[in-house]
Design brief:
alpha/beta; Aldehyde Dehydrogenase, Chain A, domain 1; Aldehyde Dehydrogenase, Chain A, domain 2; 2 domains; seven-stranded mixed beta sheet; six-stranded mixed beta sheet; 37% helix; succinate-semialdehyde dehydrogenase (NAD+) activity
Length: 477
């Protein structure tokens, strides 16, 4: 058993009223730790500390900030195994994925250590004689960062790293199911020399935390990764609190289009490991499989073969390739989606049931001939389920792919350059992978369109939401 405490003004502490909440291992359903539940008093202190930290941190040079971010990246890599074990213990994903997540977070810190040094303004040629005009980039102010449980370290780092590089202070609220990753990030930064108050960590009752801190006058920017309904609620709160800036990375329901000329074996080989990574609990995960009827039977057969090779179990165990879902709530939700699809005509080709009686395990599942009326045809699945939907024409499939209110990522498999270009142009999505599933990386912007949110994380674009442009027009005296 371990305690995850609050970080306020550089000090780790229990909540002011001493309340705790359990942390459960989804593979065993056993309590492995507990986290502090922040009170209103704690949140007020965190906001005040963030304001003081911002005034100090914004005056540091970009080189000083860069050195601290790089130092933190080194510390994460040095402790990748231990941090990865904490992620697996709380989230359930297999240990190899957790260690890879730690290294990805370290790469993100390195990337923004350099982007902060390249946050250039510009000189504007004078409009009149004896004038000097320029645009300077300045930090927006203290940031509230709200991160999810599926990628607890990477999603936190994608917010914290660019904010710190820009000169902002941050209050980070990790998901209560997986708080240890945020602690590891904070410890790495503090050990690297981050001043007190520049980064705070709070946990507790999510609705109460977001409501109070969004309304806090010290907070100038909010970044949230999570569901569409919660994103809409937070956006309304931010508007009411003074039109505070928002970055929203919300849901996805990614279409995968298998054209009639696709290399079916290659597509399945690439899709299986990505689809079932983190047990399918990834917003950019391939989610709706549109397969040309000319190759659908062969594609489904290959999927069933690939799924049969997966080994379900505790993410800490050797040889396991698929861990549990992160919560009982997700387990029940996925089960309901599969039952609904089958009741509306889908053919169950593999899986479809809870695995065992202990742990939140759900069998890797393949459904064929899924009806448009099935709930999972329109609702994000967030689980180890592949629904296959046949089609016959370009117009039919592009219409179905774009029918979703979400538009985060999309994937196309074809040997035709013409079709690749048509799909890339016409799909309503923030990211498109053609014959690849690699759309999320440190160097590229990550974000969607429509109800998948606005603003982007990653790449050179990722630092912009944490800066404001100030135009200065100066006449010589």
């Amino acid at each position: 058993m371990y305690d995850v405490k609050l970080l306020i003004d550089g000090a780790w502490s229990a909540s002011s009223d001493g309340q705790w909440s359990p942390i459960v291992n989804p593979a065993t359903e056993e309590q492995v730790g507990r986290h502090a539940i922040a009170t209103s008093e704690d949140l007020s202190r965190a906001a005040e500390a963030a304001e003081r930290g911002f005034r100090l941190w914004r005056r540091k040079t970009s080189l000083e900030r860069s050195a601290i971010l790089r130092g933190a990246a080194t510390r994460l890599r040095e402790n990748a195994r231990a941090i990865g074990e904490d992620i697996t213990r709380e989230n359930g994903k297999i240990i190899g994925e957790s260690i890879a997540e730690v290294n990805w977070a370290a790469d993100t810190l390195d990337w923004y250590a350099e982007e902060g040094r390249r946050a250039y303004g510009r000189i504007i040629p004078e409009k009149m004689p004896d004038m000097h005009q320029y645009v300077a980039k300045e930090p927006v102010g203290p940031v509230l960062a709200l991160s999810p449980w599926n990628w607890p370290l990477v999603t936190s780092t994608r917010k914290v790293a660019p904010a710190l590089a820009a000169g902002c202070s941050v209050i980070l609220k990790p998901a209560e199911e997986t708080p240890s990753a945020a602690v590891a990030l904070a410890k790495a930064l503090l050990d690297a020399g981050l001043p007190s108050g520049v980064l705070g960590i709070v946990m507790g009752i999510p609705g109460e935390i977001s409501r109070q801190l969004i309304a806090a006058p010290q907070i100038r920017k909010v970044s949230f990764t999570g569901s569409v309904p919660v994103g809409k609620l937070l956006a309304a709160q931010a508007a009411e609190a003074g039109l505070k800036r928002m970055t929203l990375e919300l849901g996805g329901h990614a279409p995968v289009i298998i054209w009639d000329d696709a290399d079916v074996d290659d597509a399945v080989k690439k899709l299986i490991p990505v689809k079932f990574r983190t047990s399918g609990q990834v917003c950019s995960s391939p989610s709706r499989f549109f397969v040309h009827n000319a190759v659908r039977e062969r594609f489904v057969a290959r999927l069933v073969e690939g799924v049969a090779a997966l080994r379900l179990g505790n993410g800490m165990d050797d040889g396991v390739t698929l861990g549990p879902l992160t919560s009982e709530r997700r387990l029940n939700a996925v089960g309901r989606l599969v039952e609904d699809a089958v009741s509306k005509g889908a053919k169950l080709c593999a899986g479809g049931q809870r695995h065992g009686t202990v742990g939140y395990f759900f069998e890797p599942t393949v459904l064929d001939s899924v009806s448009d009326a099935a709930t999972l045809a329109t609702e994000e699945i967030f689980g180890p389920v592949i629904p296959v939907i046949g089609f016959d024409s370009y117009e039919e499939v592009i219409g179905k792919a774009n029918a979703s209110t979400l538009g985060l990522s999309a994937y196309v498999f074809t040997r035709s350059l013409e079709m690749a270009n048509r799909f890339s142009r016409d799909i309503e999505s923030g990211m498109v992978g053609v014959n690849t599933l690699l759309v999320s990386m440190v160097e590229a912007p990550f974000g969607g369109v429509k109800e998948s949110g606005y603003g982007q994380e990653g790449g050179i674009e990722g630092i912009d939401p944490y800066m404001v442009n100030k135009f200065v027009s100066q006449a010589f005296a």
